[in-house]
Amino acid sequence: ERTETLKPFGVFEEEEGLQHRILIWGKLNNLVKEWIQEISESKNLPQSVIENIGGKIFTFGSYGLRLKLQEEVKDLRAAEEVFVPVIKLCFAGIEIDILFARLAPQTTPEDLDLRDESLLKNLDIRCIRSLNSCRVTDEILHLVPNIDNFRLTPRAIKLWAKHHNIFSNIFVSLVFPGLC
């Protein structure tokens, strides 16, 4: 009922847009895996390691990733003077911030749970900060009893704030990290 009430206000992404984001996420995930394998080959790692080495993009080097060679990429830029190294880009019309963290395991399982505290062991502070947004989002979604209602709430607040001319993406992102 609440979802139907909000639909006329355009607070939900169209199915086509959602499918486009899923497709782009898959493409970026594949690019990351290919890039990690190429780096591993350049380091002369054994082929058995290279074939099983992983990498994964979780939701929440630009040239080395070969992103500049991808026609879908526009406005690629590195934010170097920040607490967390980030590459900002527009990939096939979708604004994306890519944060990096180097984990100890040589492989990255598809079901990797970033909430696992043991992943933080022996990481430098930049890697811990890079993982923080995803970890917080995962933990919130794990603790919330009704995820659908929880995801609906920021949409309603955002709509209310826009109608009262007090909307700010920064405010919504800080209150609801990774969910807007």
From TrEMBL:
<dbReference type="GO" id="GO:1990817">
    <property type="term" value="F:poly(A) RNA polymerase activity"/>
</dbReference>
<feature type="domain" description="Poly(A) polymerase nucleotidyltransferase">
    <location>
        <begin position="67"/>
        <end position="144"/>
    </location>
</feature>
<dbReference type="InterPro" id="IPR043519">
    <property type="entry name" value="NT_sf"/>
</dbReference>
<protein>
    <recommendedName>
        <fullName>Poly(A) polymerase nucleotidyltransferase domain-containing protein</fullName>
    </recommendedName>
</protein>
<dbReference type="Pfam" id="PF20750">
    <property type="entry name" value="PAP_NTPase"/>
</dbReference>
<dbReference type="GO" id="GO:0005634">
    <property type="term" value="C:nucleus"/>
</dbReference>
<dbReference type="InterPro" id="IPR048840">
    <property type="entry name" value="PolA_pol_NTPase"/>
</dbReference>
